[in-house]
Design brief:
homodimer; three-stranded antiparallel β-sheet; alpha+beta
């Protein structure tokens, strides 16, 4: 946990945005795997963690604006709990460390909220993403579980997003740590991958790095010879000379902060010439995007710049043609780059995605394009401000199913040379990704240095 | 997946126990970590896996006894799914491989069940342990989520338990594999642990073994210098010369079968004399319990034998006194051995615990003792039959909080020498655990050989 003043300060900043009402925070429960007492690694809800810092299951809290009080609801360990799980900090101690002096039994939350609702007070809650909390909110507010999210408080969401979007110095230290551990994971994969190994062996080795540091993964590892499959969690393939390995993985620190990095490297010691060409295009797009990062720039423009750079490179390869400005604005490049250039990062790898992309990545003037293929997967579009932490992760992906679909419909045939695309059907995919913080003067790459240029990557691979 | 005839056969055996009605199976959903699309490793529900073998989220199925049909409900991948997650076996193909020819859209389940209920047909379901499935059942049957489990079908539970309790030859091959991977995990920990290492480093290394094999852990690793804390998932301590490391960990194979092993070893190369004495007692209890394993023996007697052997050893150490038969039957030994000697194992590490211990480990004549400390944590009591797979895991644990509590109440002071116990307050805990199948002639230890005697363990530690 950070110092208690950090949490007190955060809650005060939040409280000042409300004249009245109650802000309700539901922490996470333990998630059962295959029976009640066999649970996944506990992960506290990120907003709960941000305002209260306590990593225990079964908690909830309120900030009562009118009563000017903060109450934590939860139960102390019983002697049975101590026998089975060891003596830990009491809840009262943990609350004290978060600057909360009032702790009540978990069961008292129901009465607190019922009474407030009876008094016609406004109780704000955030949209739930876990079924347990949907059920709890459904019961507290007498709403059908499926419809609970629709009653979440937009004012509460916006206030939390505004605050969590700007990282403080002590948060940046944690994120730097997360990204450096992630860089260790990346370097290890780049060092140990050999022809004949299974993807699962490399994935297991880098997972170990995250665990050894006392945290875990920020998200499931993507480590695959099929880099064109964007969210690939299959690790059953064997690495073969000539393949590329795409490794998208990141650590979560003990404090809950995420890193998110991607590197693509050859299973052999060197890239072949076609791989070099495509890699160079992706790296150009990365550099062009990174070059634009600064306060007041719209991330939408960073994305456009990345797309344009990719499109120019693809035209050089003979895969695209025609007026590229038009091609990109109409979305033709999305045959090769189906997703967004980046997203916010912090306590969540896609920071605050549970609160809604429209609030985190967009605003009332910069609305998300929810229809155009490619843009609809861009999680961040609005102006950047100092303290934002985000990823830059352009890529080129050849997805046979998508190519076939578009070619059959003759989609964008004025911009795409489908004959030439046939040569790349089995190419796979390439992505590079780093994490940045927007600063007063531009941006700063987070975490330790990690091989990214063709030469740097081949140097690591050559030393194997 | 096993061959389709395996699943067809299992469903037929189950169906024959019902004259009419519908058996409803709900598969598991993806479990969100910190937002909807960042999910924990998917784990299918074990009963769904047993009867249908398909490891995909969002499925459900019915065996309609009257209509003599089996229907799988779920949705095929969209083109967006294929772009993001890659082309996989279609649901129709997966269903075919499980011997199911009828696949309907996921949304059609609601109508199927509504129609059946309208016709006053009996729809059997198993008790849910995940909130998503509580919500689904709540909506399907119009029951408050908290009360859904009370309406689960006892006939269905008993039929599933009867079938899953007796492992087939091909299941035993998988369990053997799970236990052998678990033995690799144990041996690695025993080989690499060094003074100065963090518990998390050793835990990470053995987690890697499970992942490398294409599966994962069967349950969260317990790897701790505080072995007296029975369900300890903290890995922040540093290993010190003189400490014992208790490692309770097991792999889950790709097919979903579990292994569950425990070894306790010194951080240095050798046990000290007191550790040797306590270890010997635990090993004697293990051997005595294993010696009793055979069909028709009540596991309650295996447990009693383990407890008696522990009590005799503890008397030898001067920690217990008086008539040990009485002491054990009244539960005095539970100050040192607070839990059960073993449990069923299979697709779940505590096999079928979601279906209810009273059905899995007990029956109508051998009821669980739910009040006596110690016995109330024994998950298995009934007669063993050939094909049962179970653990044997006696231990001795010195839990300061429990010692203080009992001593203050003068509990069992006729059997416990509290003065002498003081010398052991900081001893920690020792457990050894292996997995067995009951055979026609007795029992067989599962998995590859693994150091367990004092000499064997010291030999591994000495070679470090």
């Amino acid at each position: 946990m950070f110092d208690k003043n950090e949490y007190i300060g955060r809650r005060e900043v939040l409280s000042r945005k409300f004249n009245s009402g109650i802000l309700l925070f539901l922490g996470n429960e333990d998630s059962p795997i295959n029976f009640l007492h066999n649970t996944y690694r506990f992960r506290q809800d990120s907003s709960f963690l941000y305002y209260f810092g306590i990593q225990k299951s079964g908690l909830s809290a309120v900030i009562d604006i009118d009563e000017q009080q903060v109450v934590l609801f939860g139960d102390e360990m019983s002697i049975d709990d101590i026998v089975w799980m060891g003596r830990q900090k009491t809840l009262k101690e943990a609350a004290f460390d978060a600057g909360v002096l009032e702790v009540r039994a978990g069961s008292e939350l129901v009465d607190y909220i019922s009474y407030a609702l009876k008094k016609k007070r406004n109780v704000h809650f955030l949209p739930p993403y876990r079924a347990e909390n949907k059920t709890r909110l459904s019961a507290l507010f007498n709403i059908v579980p499926d419809q609970v999210s629709g009653f979440a408080s937009v004012a509460f969401i916006k206030a939390v997003v505004a605050q969590r979007s700007v990282k403080s110095e002590i948060e940046l230290i944690e994120i730097d740590k997360a990204v450096s551990i992630s860089a260790d994971m990346q370097l290890l994969a780049m060092k140990i991958a050999r022809p004949g190994m299974k993807e699962s062996e490399v994935a297991a080795a880098i997972h170990m790095v995250a665990l050894s540091e006392g945290g875990d993964l920020a998200y499931p590892i993507i480590l695959t010879v099929n880099g064109q499959i964007l969210h690939n969690h299959f690790y059953g393939n064997t690495l073969k000379e000539g393949n590329l390995v795409l490794n998208d993985s990141g650590a979560e620190t003990e404090m809950g902060y995420a890193g998110d990095l991607t590197r693509t490297f050859p299973v052999g010691k060197t890239f072949n010439s076609l791989q070099r060409e495509v890699y160079s295009i992706v790296l150009d797009a990365y550099s062009a995007a990174v070059g634009l990062l600064q306060a007041d720039v719209q991330y939408l423009d960073v994305h456009r710049k990345a797309c344009m750079t990719l499109a120019e490179g693809l035209k050089g390869l003979g895969l695209m043609k025609g007026n590229l400005e038009d091609a990109v604005s109409r979305g033709a490049h999305a045959l090769f780059f189906q997703c967004g250039t980046g997203h916010m990062m912090g306590l969540d790898v896609h920071d605050m995605e549970d609160l809604g992309e429209q609030y985190v990545g967009y605003n009332d003037t910069i609305l998300k394009n929810t229809s155009q293929f490619g843009l609809k997967s861009l999680r961040l579009g609005k102006e950047l401000v100092s303290g934002n932490v985000l990823t830059v992760e352009p890529g080129i992906y050849f997805i046979p199913e998508l190519i076939d679909l578009w070619e059959a419909k003759k989609s964008f045939s004025e911009y795409i040379n489908y004959e030439k695309v046939k040569d790349f059907r089995s190419f796979g995919g390439i992505r590079v990704e780093d994490d940045f913080v927007i600063t007063a003067n531009g941006s700063r790459k987070l975490g330790k240095q990690l091989a990214i240029s063709l030469d740097e990557v081949e140097e690591v691979r050559g030393s194997m």
